[in-house]
Backbone:
């Protein structure tokens, strides 16, 4: 998505976008669309903060230069025009993206009164906007829409910024040269060679098969990227002014949260800083979380656990935090700057995959893969199940086998994260009995149709066949055994009499029980009716436990006529 030397915040933003895009590829759910909306809103706030911070830096630079000029020192007079040049180029590229946002919001059916977007998942109009209707193969598959123009504008902006630093650097370089924001996948080392989109141009790779809300979030991210470059360039110019004196009475304590929405169990982190700070000011930081001061001494990172536990029916709640920054004043006293805010704790979403997601099979080993993507590597699950046995997988903490014994099973998912057990969710399942197997009478390896006579010297097989779908889902639970099979013949008008038997329990019903008719029906004439009586059929589950299958006597009787 972008090359380069990224701040910790931008790395986190990129990772969030990649995770959401990966989830989107699997399933365009309303929760994922809402996550993109939340990400878009968070990025929009971040861009506003950068814009405000850059405005303050601009005012400080211009004020200092004018102060020098009023004192007769015009050595930095050119910085006024250079500052205006930085702002103009940044506003041009951000303004272009804002124009694109207006169109995207129209595509998303923005309500002019409430501002609400009614169609977050619209794809076709979104694709046509970026690539041009029917023109996606133009310009070497870069299309003829806004995507190509955005690529060009972003590249030109980076080229200009790098040239600005190289030509104006008389004191020391900023973090440039800046890496390109819009990079073709083949030139991006972060995109693996096995990625199917590696050979696509940036335009297709970035905008293909995505809903409009995803691209709204992406544009906000690009705006933040440009504001960061604007910030670097303004600080590059500020460095030419030398030591700047600040008025202590204008200091304001501020914080910049990495995100306003945090999954329960994860860390909430916010950067604490003093606006218009300098190397001469050494603030003291304290707060409701753990504090890590930057080596510069001017900023600090505060982190605290997002606490779980949500009221019934709610998935979000607010958690308050506070910080205090003490700053030395010129008179030897300390000025206290207080920060009191809150952030949103969001209940992590449980994602479960299995062969039968909606229902569990009774007295079977139902394997589930239970994940909470929001917790990442901090996910340390604890499973409990009502009216069932839960068996954790010894090699994969996200896998658990559920063996239900009742009609309803509630799987409780918790996580031991950051030293606390967080209740995440309860997932309710209906428990159903496995579908009954089919009993076959095989002649020469083929099921008998129950109509055609069979040779009296034939060898027949009584076999139990599992339901196809059930066997594919849970093969270790789809095994059957037979107890006692009797062969009876009905001669003349009398009752059927036993002529042969396969006795005992534990006979392999899946493989089948073979009975030789020839040795038992030598004297019987064609047209004699024969019957196979099965005493009982048990299903063997994955643990080797026998579960009796309920059949009627009629179900357990197979009839035929010999010829």
Residues:
């Amino acid at each position: 998505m972008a090359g380069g030397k990224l701040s910790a915040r931008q790395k986190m933003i990129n990772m969030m976008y990649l995770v959401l895009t990966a989830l989107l590829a699997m399933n365009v759910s309303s929760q994922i669309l809402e996550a993109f909306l939340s990400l878009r809103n968070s990025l929009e706030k971040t861009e506003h903060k950068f814009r405000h911070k850059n405005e303050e830096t601009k005012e400080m630079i211009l004020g200092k230069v004018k102060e020098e000029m009023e004192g007769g020192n015009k050595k930095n007079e050119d910085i006024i025009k250079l500052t205006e040049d930085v702002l103009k180029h940044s506003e041009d590229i951000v303004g272009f993206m804002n124009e694109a946002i207006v169109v995207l919001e129209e595509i998303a059916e923005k309500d002019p009164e409430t501002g609400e977007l009614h169609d977050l998942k619209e794809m076709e109009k979104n694709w046509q906007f970026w690539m041009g209707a029917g023109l996606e193969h133009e310009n070497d598959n870069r299309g003829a829409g806004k995507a190509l123009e955005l690529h060009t504008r972003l590249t030109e902006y980076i080229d200009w910024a790098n040239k600005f630093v190289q030509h104006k650097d008389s004191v020391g370089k900023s973090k440039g040269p800046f890496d390109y924001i819009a990079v073709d996948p083949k030139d991006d080392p972060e995109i693996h060679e096995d990625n199917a989109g590696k050979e696509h141009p940036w335009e297709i790779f970035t905008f293909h098969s995505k809903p409009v809300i995803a691209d709204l979030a992406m544009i906000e991210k690009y705006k933040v990227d440009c504001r960061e470059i604007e910030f670097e360039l303004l600080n590059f110019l500020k460095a030419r002014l030398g030591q700047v004196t600040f008025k202590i009475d204008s200091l304001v304590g501020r914080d910049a949260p990495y995100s306003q929405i945090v999954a329960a169990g994860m860390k909430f982190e916010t950067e604490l800083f003093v606006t218009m700070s300098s190397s001469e000011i050494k603030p003291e930081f304290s707060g409701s979380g753990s504090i890590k001061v930057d080596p510069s001494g001017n900023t600090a990172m505060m982190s605290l656990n997002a606490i779980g536990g949500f009221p019934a029916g709610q998935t979000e709640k607010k958690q308050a935090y506070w910080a205090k920054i003490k700053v030395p004043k010129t008179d030897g006293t300390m000025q206290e700057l207080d920060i009191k805010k809150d952030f949103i704790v969001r209940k992590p979403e449980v994602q479960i995959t299995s062969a039968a997601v909606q229902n569990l099979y009774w007295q079977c080993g139902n394997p589930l893969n239970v994940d909470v993507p929001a917790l990442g590597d901090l996910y340390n699950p604890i499973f409990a199940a009502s009216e069932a046995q839960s068996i954790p997988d010894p090699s994969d903490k996200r896998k658990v086998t559920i063996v239900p014994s009742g009609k309803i099973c509630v799987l409780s998912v918790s996580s031991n994260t950051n030293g606390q057990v967080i209740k995440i969710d309860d997932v309710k399942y209906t428990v159903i009995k496995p579908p009954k197997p089919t009993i076959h009478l095989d002649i020469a390896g083929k099921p008998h149709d129950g109509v055609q006579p069979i040779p009296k010297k034939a060898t027949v097989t009584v076999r139990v066949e599992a339901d196809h779908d059930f066997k594919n889902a849970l093969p270790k639970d789809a095994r059957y055994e037979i107890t006692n099979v009797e062969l009876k013949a009905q001669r003349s008008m009398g009752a059927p009499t036993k002529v042969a038997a396969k006795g005992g329990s534990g006979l392999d019903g899946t493989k089948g029980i073979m009975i030789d008719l020839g040795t038992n029906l030598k004297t019987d004439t064609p047209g004699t009716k024969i019957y196979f009586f099965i005493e009982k059929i048990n299903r063997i589950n994955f643990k080797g436990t026998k579960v009796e299958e309920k059949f009627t006597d009629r179900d357990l009787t197979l009839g035929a006529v010999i010829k």
